[in-house]
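[09:14] KT: can someone run the structure on this one? pasting the chain below
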Amino acid sequence: MSSEPTLAESPEPAPASHAVLPLRVYLRRLIWLCVGPMLLLGAVLAYNRVQSGLEQRQQAAERIVARLALLTDQMLDSRIGGLVMLAQGIEPSASLGQLRRMGESYARGFGSHVLLADADGRVLLNSRLPPEVPQPALPRPAAMEALSAALRDGRPVVGNLFLGPIAGLPIVVVAVPMPEAPGQPPQALLTTIESRQFQPPLERLLLPEGWSLELRDAAGAVVARRGEPISGDDGWLRRAALQRAGWEAVVLMPPQVMHDAVLAEALPLVAGIVGATLIGVLGGTLAGRRLGRDVGSLAAPAGSAEADSRVAEIAAVRRQLDDAAARRRASEDALRRSQIEAQRLMQEAVSARARAEAANASLRELSLAVEQSSSSILITDPEGRIQYVNQAFLEHTGYTREEVIGHTPALVHSASMPAAAIESLWHTLQAGETWRGEFVNRRKDGSEFVEAAVVTPLRDEGGHITHYVAVNEDVTERRRLERELDGHRHHLEMLVASRTAELEAARAQADAANQAKSAFLANMSHEIRTPLNAILGFTHLMRRDARDGVTAERLARVDSAAQHLLAVLNDILDLSKIEAGRLELHEHDFSLRELVQRCTEQIAERAAAKSLALHADVGDTPDLLRGDSMRLAQALLNLLSNAVKFTERGAVALDVRLLEREGPRLKLLFTVTDTGIGIAPAQREQLFSAFAQADASMARRFGGTGLGLAITRRLAELMGGEVGVDSRLGEGSRFWFSVRLSGGSAVAACERPVVDGESELRRRFAGARVLLAEDNPVNQDVGRELLEMAGLQVDVASDGEQAARLAVDGDYAAILMDMQMPGVDGLEATRLIRSLPAHAATPIVAMTANAFGEDRQACLDAGMDDHVAKPVDPAQLYSVLLHWLGRRAAGRS
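[09:31] RB: done, structure tokens below
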């Protein structure tokens, strides 16, 4: 490039008037300017570190003597406290023998013997010496000073160190004045502490190597020492006074130890600073020489070997010099391009002007739209003065434009306009937000009207509010219609509230009637079951003892009639619970095929008696199901029993099919088909109603209450299904119901082996004593005979209070408890018996006519173990007793 020869051939600059120094000299001075403050800072750091180390050692010394003083005070406190308790515990009439035993007890606790001395120093008692040995007087003056001070000041005193007269060991005496007693001279209790007992606290303290620690008495004698003896004040000396005595703890750090600590603190830091300084100076010198050579390369001719530099910044300067001419040519090219761009911008400005004119035309159109709008529009300045209103505003208010321009909108506000609305308006607008609300305005002729308003602030490019725009719509007629509508709605709400109150009252009456019905049914169930229990119980006993066939047959008919009455009662109660919504389904896993088999087995005997063929087919229906198997079996038995009842010849068939499957949910269809008498079409609709049969003659011919199909329908509905019937008169019937169940899991076999409960009880538990709580005399006899037939011994209680009294002393293997008894009922009696430790685990079985599910739960909650409903089935009673007596025997073994 043309600039390179010029730069290379330019003459050397003229010498400056002042001295010119090489770059390396400047760099060397700069290095020392940087290193000098570092050296100064290092010295300051070294000094601070030494001072900090010394302060830490001083604080450590103060902590050591303070800790020694505290430990010694605690040791003296324990000895003084024990001596004070001993002095206060001595009765004035105590003998020397008693005092000696108390002193020996103190010696065993503290390892120091006790002396009793008077004010003259005579020793009246020394627990260390036998009583027959002459007691030496107290040493003078050390022990006497402590004794005199204690008697004079009336407080415990710790003396100074002296040699004991008996063992010749250095000891310290502690004197405690005895409580003053009438007629007795002043006396004091003294104990001695050997100086070696003060040594362990010194040994437990952490003492730095080379330090000395001493415990001195008030006279300056050394009681205990660790390290070299402390003489004079050569070194650092720290002291701490004791609270219990005029003693002090002294620690000394010798000068040589202090000097070694200073060297250990300062030398590493000084060495590091000096080393870092030398490295910095050496590195700076080498870097200065290299930098000087690289800076000199800038003066070398372009392209020569001397012009090359390995310093990035210097190489960049060389490249900048070389690229200067190229940038100049590039600038000229850029200037030409700028001229072309300016021409293009001029053309764009012309286009922008055309667009602005088009925008003005649109603005004029918008202005016309605002002017011709049916809504009132006004624009105000930030102070609220009106600057523009459209024609609609003038027509709605009756004012002219000249009458409103310059005024505020308050000109048209009515006196009934709420002040809170105006405050809300300005609060919202000053926050820069849009306000929506309603104005109550007044026309020029004085008439009022309501407007729905939207007021919006307008901002300039800087975000400052310049105007407010309000768009108002006349809603007077709309508000009038709304008020009329509100009136109608209020009237309707009053009607609804009145009707709701009537419905609530009706529902309350219905609930009360339902509760009365439930209470009546429960009481009826109890009152019927109680005599039924006697009927069935005595029938069972009489059939057992019957010797001729005629009597046995008659008793069998009595038993059948009673069982029929019980079935009717259960059907009535089930229907009542279903209608009251109190029947709950209890889902569990079960086997469909086992359920079908149990149901067919229950009616097989009746079908065989009429020579009817009985068939059951479940096809490929899933066997493992989950649902309420007991209620499902109840519905199925109702249909099977009816089919056998109304069929004289032919067959009865049960068919089960899967209708649909939705995930785990299954819908099954149970169908019972018979070849019986059939049903006329006119009679089918009432079949599934309660207490309904095809006609009255059927009830007379076949018997029955007409509840079975009604219960089946309600059970099917509870299980998500429905019921139906297809029949022709004289050709038989097809009854069916559907249910929704879930897929189940494998059911563990839980069948118990069939055993004769009575014989098994007599074999295993003959002679076991049982308590029977029953208030009905007839049921007492029935229960006693049933239990005694099984080989059990029976005690009878007529109420709960008597049962609880008998349980206090009686060792009963089991307790049978009625619920409803005069005075203390069965539930309260169970709680009382359970509170007895002897009967906390005794089996208690409810044997009651309260047969509802809630009754069973109440018995279990009260602490009973099981529930047997009346009338009692002897086989069930024996099975329950066999189960619980077996568990009790297994628990005791």
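[09:33] KT: thanks! The first helix runs from residue 3 to 9.
[09:34] RB: yep, looked fine to me
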